[in-house]
Amino acid sequence: MKVLMFTNKLEMNDDMLGAVHDHVKKLAEKVDKLIIICLEKGNTQFPENVEIHSLGKEKKYSKLRLLLRAPKLFFRTVPRVDVIFCHMNPEYTLMIAPFAKLFGKPIVSWYGHPEVSFKLRLMNLLTNVIATSDKTGCLLPSKKVRYVGYGINTRQFRPLKQTNENVIIWLGRLSRIKKIELLVEAVNILVNKRNMKNIKVMICGGPWNNDTRLYQAELIDLIKKYGLEKNFNFTGFIPNVKAVDYYNMAKFAVSMVEAGGYGKTNLEAMSCGRPLITCSKAFDDVINKYRKDLFFKTDDVEDLAGKMESMLKKSDEEISKIGIYLRALMVEKFDSDAFLNNLIGIFKDLTGKNQVETSS
Description:
With 360 residues, this protein is of the alpha/beta class. 40% of the residues lie in helices and 16% in strands. It contains twelve helices and twelve strands. The protein has helices spanning 18-28, 63-77, 90-103, 118-126, 180-193, 210-225, 243-249, 264-271, 291-294, 301-313, 316-333, 336-350; strands at 2-10, 33-41, 50-54, 83-86, 107-110, 129-132, 145-147, 167-171, 200-204, 232-236, 252-254, 276-277. The strands form two sheets. It has a seven-stranded parallel β-sheet, with helices on both faces. α3 runs parallel beside α4 (118-126) and α8 (264-271) packs across α11. The longest helix is centred in the last third of the chain and has 18 residues, at 316-333. 41% of the residues are buried.
């Protein structure tokens, strides 16, 4: 089978998109030929059956030049493959669909966001299949939606050691919707009101635009206001390949976001055997066994502080028991092998179709 993948960025050391590199490498093992068109290319290490074409964002090409380059690559690559896989952005499906139609190639479009946008609806008209993680990944009512699971590399993200330090980790893309100020407020309660002075918090992720730089400055000001400078460490961006070391430094992880799906970094933390304290409803059916230990009420700082205090006071054996349970769940239900096998199954179902279906 020959596959054309259209994706955003290939960079093995990227903090958020480094996992895409791993997925591509494993996907290449399951197909005869994998041709990739990406917006931006960085450091990569792929087998010989992978062929990469960058639109040139890493060369600082203008948006117009990127757009003009794309059709040339589509004409050169689409006729050579059996199926097209558009990864992440609906725009990629919209761009390549006319060429898929022209050459009679089916499209599989990945989507993982709670927003039901106009672009998603238009993508639904042009693609054969919308592949998503689970029922939280795509809320558009469509017969084209197929669940393929999450792609967590549980062999990479694994327990390495059990820490005795009171270290808490938050890892992700720094932005206001992550509500990190709630974590600062909760730590203030523990340190300054409940006299738990030896808490360390790693904020792993850096600002990436003006608003997030301002947000980080506001968080630092809040930390200084409460005198928590010794309790917080902003690590900046962490390459995905090194994230496993940071998860294993922590006793547990936290997430303050209710909306959306599971979140890749949350699953990676659990794959490393780290309990996750969260308010996300997506985890209701996943870690219900330890609900009283791991769930806090949305935006409730006192409840978050209480759950963190309880976890910090647990014995190593108690935390290890929770971690082993979560790790087993990740291997069983969220491993990248199952994700890729499901994706390949969709490719096989579509291979050989003569035209792109456009009915909803």
